[in-house]
Amino acid sequence: MFKRPLRYYYLKIMRQKGSPHQVAVGVSIGVCVGLIVPPGGQILILIAILPFIKCNKLLPIVGCTISNPITFGPLYAFYFWLGKLVTGLEASFKKPDVNMSTWEWLSELWQKGGDILIILLVGGLICTFVGTITCYYITKAMVTSFRGRKVNKQLNRMDDINRKLADEANRIRENSDHDS
To answer: Residue 33 burial by CB count (10 A; 0-12/13-18/19+): exposed, middle or buried?
Structure first.
């Protein structure tokens, strides 16, 4: 189910033009924006910053897909958990109680909103920093390795062709020696 799309994106990234550094920068910028900017604003942010960055322009969009409807909930839950752990802030609020009016519950939520925002921001920034740096080095290594294997395959094919040509030349030489 996921193997085909993953392979598609993998090959799409590996075959992009540019140095391994430029490819890795493109993917990691997309991951950075995908992790820190809520969905809806990601493409707008990319459109605003990409003219100033020397990288492949398609890859940030691919990297941005790290945040999607499937991963959005778990990402923000992890940001919240990590942010609470790092900041030490408590921002839990009660579910609406039967005796609690809607206004009381919304008032409590509003009061805790600042803490929730700080917790999410701290957790999100930590994950974004770690994710972006990790993505850069992994992507650069993968592109370098992929291109190295591709060059090795081409060299092996050339060796095979050279071997066949040498064998054919030897065969022709042997035939011409027998004829004389």
So the answer is: buried
On whether residue 54 sits in a domain, the answer given is yes
Residue 108 forms part of a structural domain: yes
Count of structural domains, the chain = 1
How far is the C-alpha of 68 from the C-alpha of 64, rounded, in Å? 8
Domain extent, residue 76, equals: 3-149
CA angle 130–134–135, rounded 5-degree value: 115
Indicate the pTM of the whole model: 0.71
pLDDT in tens, the chain (180 residues): 678 887 887 787 888 888 899 999 999 999 999 999 888 888 899 989 989 988 878 889 888 888 888 888 899 889 989 999 999 888 765 555 666 666 776 677 677 777 888 888 999 999 999 999 999 999 999 999 988 877 677 777 777 787 887 778 778 777 776 665
